[in-house]
Amino acid sequence: MLLNPFEIIIMIIALAAGTMITRFTPFLLFPEGKTQPAVITWLGKALPPAMMGLLVIYCLRHVSFTAAPHGLPEFLAIGAIALVHLWRRNVLLSIGGGTVLYMILVQLVFA
Question: Is the pLDDT at 51 greater than 90, yes or no?
């Protein structure tokens, strides 16, 4: 299905408006001088670790422990991520390094 130029412009405007609303609403609801509600503060502390746990479970959902390599590349990469993060406390370095290690393991070592 091809869209005509008018539909494309309307779609771009709708996407830009949706993005702007989701970006600006928190600043309008919770200005800098106003105290945040307790539930918002709690969500700010609880959601990041919960999302990381959810992502780990999502990434490991298709790992087969009964077939070779029995999840070994995934768990080696997770271990490397944990060690690098404990060592350097740098999220970008730990996740990037773990991703590179995982790719090397699945493409070259366990291929």
Answer: yes
